[in-house]
Amino acid sequence: MESFKEGILQVVSKIKSSVLLDTKELDSIIRELQRALLKADVEVKLVLEISERIKKRFLEEEHPPGFSKKDVLIKILYDELVNLLGGETTEELAIKPIPYKIMLVGIEGSGKTTTAGKIANYFKKKGYRVGLVAADTYRPGAYDQLKMLAESVGVMFYGDPQERDAVSLAKKGIETLEKAGAQIIIIDTAGRHKDENSLMEEVKVLYRELKPNSVFLVVDATQGSAVARQARAFREAVPYGYVVVSKMDGSAKGGGALSAVAASNARVLFIGVGEKIDDLEPFVPRKFVARLLGMPDLDAILQRFAEFSKYEKERAKAIAAGKITLLDLKEQLESIKKLGPLSKIAEMMGLQVKVTGEEEMSVDRWINIMNSMTMEELLNPDIIDSSRIRRIARGSGVTPRDVRQLLDAYKNMKKMVKQLSRSRRVGL
Length: 428
Ligand code: GDP
What we know:
Elements: H1 4-16, H2 23-39, H3 44-60, H4 69-84, E1 100-105, H5 112-125, E2 130-135, H6 142-153, E3 156-158, H7 166-179, E4 184-189, H8 196-210, E5 214-220, H9 227-237, E6 242-246, H10 254-263, E7 267-272, E8 280-282, H11 285-293, H12 298-320, H13 326-339, H14 342-348, H15 357-371, H16 375-379, H17 386-396, H18 400-425
Parallel strand pairs: 1-4, 1-5, 2-3, 2-4, 5-6, 6-7
Antiparallel strand pairs: 7-8
Helix pairs in contact: 1-2, 2-3, 3-4, 4-11, 5-6, 7-8, 8-9, 13-15, 15-17, 17-18
The protein binds guanosine-5'-diphosphate (GDP).
Guanosine-5'-diphosphate binds next to helix 5.
């Protein structure tokens, strides 16, 4: 079975091997993405939404200079996949107050009991004293399973195979473990009952009586987008804030499960990636998608975009303040150059001026010099001191005097613009 990752890798390789990245190629890449997402059981509605957004952004957003079309598309794909799988989240679970009570809910077979052991192990490794409570009084074997997990992890355990009443059992468990010094108490609850209604009823009463600090819903990745129904059913019984998606290893439908949880506005906190006790990972959509795309150079692309958007903001500030930067001068010169040689432009405009070879040269030379400047220098020419001047001169193969000349011309231009706007203000 093709995994979610394999499907996404196909999309990436299609982007990499594209030639023009025109609308035809874009459409075929989007179709490949749709195929990969549908195979991963992502809901059709979400698939259509992400396709539309990627297409629209690629065609309508201005592509920043210096980025190839492929880089831009990869960046948009990355953004939108992160968005689909839960968005930017950096927040970690805050273990406060202590003892911190976590109640686990989820239907039988979702991997709840195994996950209880994994979470206990995770927090134990972080240095907490952890206790597990076996409050699933319905499934025979749940008690033994959790007890064994607690022993193998080396955390405290409370259970009572004779007790039928989950609420009084859990209350006793919390009390006992708290007295024994547990800082985190994890309560495993039943995942099956006579029927769904009585299961939800028990979950509701447990929540009301135990007042946990957090409720985690455990769902099984192999269920794909069907977890949306479970998420809704449990939401009516308990306000869970976090979800653990188990069995992400080897499930081709992991993408469907993750996107369904994200669409329900819950946050996936952990994913289960195997049957062993260590097979639990905090889920960070950004990191997950980066791994999914499998591109060693992705970090570099994202870094360049982040830098670019930082400078875009600075530039917007400069524009708002009516400041002219060297970047403006550079862009002006570049667009003039596109029209042809200066002498030609002057001729076309019917200007009587004679453009000398010297002036023609200096436009090229100035652009060249500015290419050796950093974005920071272009946006804040005031920071260009003599050591920077020497570096820029070396980089562009001119003398420091040439760089100074350019800076002087820039200063004159700034002065002119200032006078112009002043005269405009006084109505001249
Ligand atoms: P519960 O009924 O919800 O308590 O489910 P269990 O904890 O008993 O798990 C059901 C089955 O799923 C067991 O065989 C587990 O070993 C298996 N399981 C749980 N989590 C994972 C996981 O992340 N990956 C894999 N491959 N199997 C898992």
